Amino acid sequence: MYLYGPVITGRDEMHIRALELAHEGKDVPGEIRGSAIFHCGPIMRKTENGWSVVAAGPTTSARMNKLEAEFIERFGIRAVIGKGGMSPEVAEAMKENGCVYLAATGGAAISLAEGLARCTGVEWEDLGMAEAMWKFQTQRFGPLIVAIDTEGNSLYDKVNESLKRRIACGTRHPRPAGRGR
After folding, report:
1. What whole-number distance in Å separates Cα of residue 58 and Cα of residue 11?
2. In contact, 6 and 139? CB cutoff 8 Å
3. What is the pLDDT of residues 127-148, one digit of tens each?
4. Hey, which end of the chain has fewer CB within 10 Å, N or C?
């Protein structure tokens, strides 16, 4: 699938800053509420017309496991984009709040950057380029796979369960044709 519309980026420090401000009763950027958040530290280039994205590869989402459930609940996050999946606690928060996890392909930073059609702004530049909250308007951003749906069903869990069953039954994958022992 592909996304069209607004997306923000956020890694560890962005999550921490937003949650700290919310705990203190202070304002957070409005774009966070109800957003699609991309776990990414993009490489950006300043141009005469603003900012352009050079590369935007997904960050391993598990880094945000301790922060993401509260982030989803507090800010009404609709989609989390990253790689590698998230914890059962985060999947439960997704289920309770109607959020999905969209898996992006690691190593596809240039291709994904092409889908971030226009940078519409940046917050918290003091955190550094990778940790700042970048705001984008997307155009055919992806491809993405729904890896955790709004019911908490996880593609990662299904694959792990299938693997456990195969191991328990002694089922092996056939060797590719042309390969010797």
Report:
1. 10
2. no
3. 999 999 999 999 999 999 999 9
4. C
Angle separating helix axes 65-75 and 88-97, nearest 10 degrees: 10
Query: Which helix (DSSP H) or strand (DSSP E) does residue 111 occupy?
Result: helix 109-115
87-120 pLDDT, tens digit per residue, is 999 999 999 999 999 999 888 888 999 999 999 9
Distance CA 136, CA 78 (A): 16
Greatest CA separation for the chain:
65
Whether residue 164 has pLDDT greater than 70: no
DSSP reduced 3-state for 58: strand
| Active-site residue, 173 included | no
Here the tokens at position 74 are: 């507090």
- Catalytic-role residue among 15, 23, 39, 173: 15
pLDDT for the residue 157: 65
Q: Which of 102, 119, 32 lies closest to 70 in space, CA to CA?
A: 32
Q: Name beta bridge partners: 28.
A: none
* Residue 87: HSE in the Cβ half-sphere, 13 Å Cα cutoff: 12
The values of phi and psi at residue 98, to 5°, are: 65, 40
Distance CA 15, CA 68 (A): 8
